[in-house]
Structures are given as C-alpha cells and as structure tokens.
Design brief:
- The chain is an alpha/beta fold.
- Helix content is 50%, strand content 19%.
- It has an 8-stranded mixed β-barrel with strand order 1-2-4-5-6-7-8-9.
- α3 packs parallel to α4 (128-138).
- 32% of the residues are buried.
- Bound molecules: ligand C2E and calcium ion (3 copies).
- One calcium ion (CA) is lined by residues 179-180.
- This is Diguanylate cyclase/phosphodiesterase with PAS/PAC sensor(S).
- Residues 23-277 form the EAL domain.
Amino acid sequence: AKTSGRGRFSFFSNEMNLLAQERLALEAALREALRKEQLHLHYQPQIDLKDGHLYGVEALARWTHPEIGNIPPIRFIPLAEECGLIGELSDWALREACRQLADWRKRGLAVPAVSVNLSATNFHNLELPQLIADTLSTHALAASDLTVEITESLLMDTNPSTMKTLGDIHAQGVRLAMDDFGTGYSSLGYLRRLPVSELKLDKSFVRDLARDEATRALTNAVIRIGDSLRLTVVAEGVEDSTQQELLKAQGYHVAQGYLFSPPLPAAELERWLREHAL
Ligand code: C2E
Ligand code: CA
Ligand code: CA
Ligand code: CA
C-alpha cells in the first residue's frame, strides 16, 4: 500500500510538473509576444439597429504563436492576469486601438468609436486614467471616442483603488460598458455602483431568444432597465436575422455578431466598411 501510494503521488507530481512547465513555457512565450509585437487586435463592427449605421467597433486581442499557431484569448488573457502581464497587455491594447482609430479617420473612414476590453486588475493601477488621457491626446482623439468594457468581476474586487480609477476614467468622459450583462449574480447591484453608459447583453441570451419565451421576457426586462437608466444597450452574438428582428422589436439599440461580421484584422474591417458603405 505504501509503495502504491508513493507511486501514485509521484505520478501526480509528474503530471503537475508537466502542467507547470507548460504554463511556464506559455508565460515566457507571452512575454516574448508582447516584446516582439506578435499580438494583434481584431475589430468587430457594432451596428445601430435603428438606421443600420456603424455605432463603433470592439477591439479583441489575437495571438499567433510562430510554432503553436493561434492561441485563443480565453487561454492567454487569464494567463496574462495570473502572471502579471495583463497591465502591459492592456496598455498595448489601449494604445494600439487608439492608434488604429486615428489612422482610419486620417484616411477618411468615419469610425465613431472603439471599445477596448480591460481586466479587473487593470483598475488597481492608479496611473491607468493618466495613460488613457495621454493616449487619447497623442492621437488627437476625444474621450468619447473610447469605450472601456468591464465585467462584473470588478465588483468582487475589494482593492480600494478600483472605484477611484473607474471614477477618474469616467470623469474624463470615457464611456464604460458593462460586458456580459446578465450572466453574473449581481448585475443589478453593479448598475447601481458603477458609472456605466452602456450595457452589453450577454450572447447566451441572444442564442436562446428565438426558442425560449422566458429568455425573451428577460431580454425585454434588460432593455427596459437600460432605457430607464438612459444607457445604450448592445446585444452581442447576433448570428441570424430572426435574432436581429426580435431584438429590434424589443427596442435594442445596437447589435454585434457574426450576422454582420466576425472580428476582422484592421485592413479587412476597412474593406468591409467600404463594401457596406458604412
Ligand atoms: P467578450 O469581450 O465577451 O467578446 C466577445 C466574444 O464573442 C469574442 O470572442 C468574439 O469573437 C465572439 N463573438 C463575436 N460575435 C459572435 C457571434 O455572433 N457568435 C458567437 N458565438 N461569438 C461571437 P474572443 O475574441 O474569442 O474573445 C473572448 C474573450 O476574451 C472576450 O469576450 C474577452 O472577455 C476576452 N478578451 C479578448 N480580447 C481581450 C483584450 O484585449 N483584453 C481583455 N482583458 N480581454 C480580452
Ligand atoms: Ca467585450
Ligand atoms: Ca461579452
Ligand atoms: Ca466575456
């Protein structure tokens, strides 16, 4: 029994070593990717449901590793959060998205705004509001050209800097969007405590919309909450025109999803915008 116990233990410990080694290797690779500019942003258009105009674009990070290939953000964002690289990654994403927006405008494309996703730990950094202000001014952009997407994990965060940082960013006139709205247990509490201008209905609701009456009742409640608080409400993950029509009929303001376009590299988004005369 003793030997088999030890054997089992060493088996697990080897397994854990392997995982730890893999993680360390990935961490080193991410560090290098940031240094060597192997990360990219893709942009997904957001469409105003009333008039079909472009409302804005969301910037989403992409990592193509020279050997492994594409590593999805659901893998490398949590890794960046755990190994202390998320500050650097978000600084890069903010700068790159603002540079790209300014570049589009210079070349005559009327992109109204760009949204950037930030992680809860980014708000521990008291210098974030200044970084945002500097980045906007470097590219001669207005605060209202930028939207920062945040998630409910911010509320779980007890770091005292978080609320101050959020308040400072809001005070500059940068819009805050609540991402994945409806998935957390405290979505409504969040609305009372944070200065958000935009709600993003989570795509799980959009997915079930056509076949489930209870889901339609909930999405109807969400747009009513948004309207009464004068928030822009964006529906995510819109994949077909049935979903689009249902959301439009309920009064949703903006839609985003594969029905219109997947997230695209900047040059391809540019082509898409010109083709659709947006
Ligand atoms: P998210 O912010 O909720 O982004 C929406 C996700 O839905 C994106 O996945 C997008 O590609 C995908 N999507 C768009 N349209 C559709 C659709 O019609 N149907 C479906 N099923 N999916 C659609 P992606 O790009 O893989 O990103 C996953 C998550 O990774 C994001 O979720 C966000 O939480 C995180 N993420 C991505 N880029 C960044 C970043 O630069 N910083 C931070 N902190 N997080 C990021
Ligand atoms: Ca988002
Ligand atoms: Ca989302
Ligand atoms: Ca998400």
